[in-house]
Amino acid sequence: MAGVNRSTYYNWRKNGPDGGIDRRTLNTKDNPNRPALPWQIPQEEREQIRAVANSSRYTDLSPNKLHYQYMLDHRDMLCSCRSLYRILGEKDLVKDRSGTKERKPSPVPPHGYIAYAPLQVLTWDITYIKQDCKGRFVYLYTVQDLFSRYILGHEVFYEQDSDRSKSFLQGVFDKWGLKGTGVVLHADNGTPMKAANVRDLFKEYGIIESHSRPHVSDDNPFIESFFKVLKYTYGLGKEVFATRESAMKFVDERVAVYHQMPHSGINNVTPHARFHGLDDEQIACYNESEEAYYKKHPERRKNHKKPIRRHIKAGPVALNASVEQAAMLAELEAAQQGPVEIKIIDLSGEEPTLETLKYDTSDAAIQEAEQAYAKRHPERLRNHKKAGIKHQQLPASMLYADAMEPSPSSAKGAL
After folding, report:
1. What are the tens digits of pLDDT across the range 164-175?
2. Which of 12, 287, 307, 312 could potentially form a cystine with 19 if both were Cys, beta carbons 3.0 to 4.6 Å apart?
3. What is the DSSP annotation of 384-405?
């Protein structure tokens, strides 16, 4: 009759003789008198965090990289990474400059390689650098280690041809002692990459040659990602150079900075630390910083069920991994850190499909923490049908059987 739920009416009666407080309007975001929650970061501290993000040291970094770089610099944490995105997003300070198009999956599966350590799988490519005269360029030759993203060699030339490719690659091989090691070197299908004298060099040094699929531009994504960072984040795309020497000096300085910046593809350790086996120190720094932060502000984890996230080392890195290789990597990663979810493209059928593969292992620490939390706060499970979640360990063969089994249409095509 009155347009009020029965529970609301009794709640008003219980909270005071005058009907109590209408909490339906009290906790709305538009209410300026909305009480602050204990785990919320104060407005003054939010302004300080935005000031740090806008400082010259961190202004070119994404929120994720800023989060880890700040911990490396100060051995302290501004706030959680998710809170950092939220605080910067309030003032529209999170920018996406990718603008790249999603590629259409090719029906031809690539040849995949997996790097378990540095100097096992390398990638290389050539990119343009503008000169001070319109229409003229110099060319940056670069070799990158897949496992650590470390730049093994780079050099600027006036021309893009096979002779300079051969001399550049030979210098890199000699510098790192790669002759006879059987290292894999991946590149696209450009003329300097597939020239006869370059292939002769590979045979002489025992290098395994690998190339992208025809007309697939992102089969060499790691080196392309480095070029994008170099041009967009470090400003190489805006610069023009009169000589190759000036361009080489600029690139030298930016590569040195790149080696010391946290890289999201290797669990936010720096390429230098990953390549030289120092990533354990940085992982320990991240864990210590987060533990110290939440000890100082325990109220900011009030609604968190799980314990503080533990940062772990990145595992092997795959280049154009097949379904079987992706399943194996997921199993290795699951054994190290627990639940894992990966997305891969299944090319076994007539039409490529995007599949989400999940792998879950029993983690005693997480299991005990969730049970303890449920006992400590049973009222927070009132909207859950089940009282808890049981983690179940399944073999990878069961999880990936459908993805690894060829479809009847593909088997018919093979016949």
Report:
1. 999 999 999 999
2. 12
3. -SSS--------HHHHSHHHHS
